Amino acid sequence: MNxxxxxxxxxxxxxxxxxxANPGTSEMHFVAALxxxxxxxPVLCLFEGVATGAxxxxxxxxxxxxxxxxxxxxxxxxxxxxxxNARKAPSPVVNVVxxxxxxxxxxxxxxxxxxxxxxxxxxxxxxxxxxxxDVSSDAAEAIAAARSRGGQVATLVLPADTAWSEGGIEAAxxxxxxxxxxxxGAISAAAKALTSGEPAMLLLGGAALRAVSxxxxxxxxxxxxxxxxxxxxxxxxxxxxGRVRVERLPALIDPARKVFAGIxxxxxxxxxxxxxxxxxxxxxxxxxxxxxxxxxxxxxxxxAPAALAALCEALxxxxxxxxxxxxxxxxxxxxxxxxxxxxxxxAAMPPQAxxxxxxxxxGRNFFPLSQGAVPHDYLxxxxxxxxxxxxxxxxxxxxxxxxxxxxxxxxxxAMYTVQxxxxxxxxxxxxxxxxxxxxRYNILDAELKNVGVxxxxxxxxxxxxxxxxxxxxxxxxxxxxGVDAVRVEDAxxxxxxxxxxATRQGPLLIEAVLx
Length: 515
Fold this sequence. Notes:
This protein has 515 residues and is α/β, with parallel strands linked by helices. It folds into three domains: 3-164, Thiamin diphosphate (ThDP)-binding fold, Pyr/PP domains (Rossmann fold, 3-Layer(aba) Sandwich); 184-315, TPP-binding domain (Rossmann fold), CATH 3.40.50; 338-513, Thiamin diphosphate (ThDP)-binding fold, Pyr/PP domains (Rossmann fold), CATH 3.40.50. The chain is built from 20 helices and 18 strands. A seven-stranded mixed sheet has the order 9-14-13-15-16-18-17, sandwiched between helices. Strands 2-1-3-4-6-5 form a six-stranded parallel sheet, sandwiched between helices. It starts with a helix and ends with a strand.
């Protein structure tokens, strides 16, 4: 058995049965090994950023890693932006990066690079296999790392000679991570802060945003009057009718400071201290008031559900908090606006839909406009690296083939990983992509004002923010990749198409034309 076959066996033994791949020469033995294992699903992606983004979406929905397969350091570099998003989600991902044969790396080849150095900034765990005999145990270690702390990015570098050489062994599956205990001191400190009579907020992230943990947080809020919130970039939130409502922190510093105004204690469960997306001239540096105290409920984000349950027990919080009530949102009429698109989604989405949101500025009102919508999962661009929506929607659809996926996508951000539409078509993924077609980087128009230079911009500078001359031909692009596509200018037609996602097979792109 060669190292490539040992790798495949180790991945399957560790529950990794899907591989999003953009391979090259150094990975050909692994590609050949895939042919011998029907339980491993290989998914070809035309760009590494699609592979890493799809693995991110897959991991968010099933809480176990998919693998990626990339070629050398420059191939890994193509996937780094979406690995940054995966880390912030957090999402479990196992990257396999083929490298030159160990003895060829000193040759001076034009293709040689330091793969580990490139991997480390966007990975939580990095290792290079030393021989075919090491591959399976290294893979088991990578899987264990990816599953740790609520989801991490693990990168295994596989020199070509470790893949083609005989001597691979079948190692034991990764051992379950040792159970960590909830810190009773942290629970006691949080309970004391919440019952101090001072204004408090419970800030939730990661696994704390699932329905069961949200119900627990709702009981804590009912017992203590604490506000419930989540950072702006959300990996996965289970929301809708019957689930506890949380507010999403604004991304910008001024509105975020209004949310934190007067808050004395912030309890962090499954997330870290929040920060604004950017710093701005002459604006405050922090969201919170001076003197606000942050309390970390659990150092390991994976413990957030258990820590919330322990906090409930410590507070004697047994009365359920309020949950979202069913609304009957009216479908808007007439021409499309960003809010009209969001209202159509809220009114027409099928139950248990998966909403992927990379609509950037246009989608900021989705939370208030979709309150009382049917139960759904909400997956947002978590870290700001554009090109996440199309591949995350692909990964989510392959992870949950019985659930419709609706991707809210900006026309600028969609172009970063538009190749993902081809893989959606090839895999017949049930994804409806709604392009907010305003023909500009609208988010950057707003940022001009935030940094104080809007009045100084001339036509040449503003041309750097527009997507016209020529307009992007979304219908032609989608159909060229094998995806059905339609151009829509009125809300009623859009709502009808969204509702059809419940029964549709295969991908659809809707260009929602905005003024």
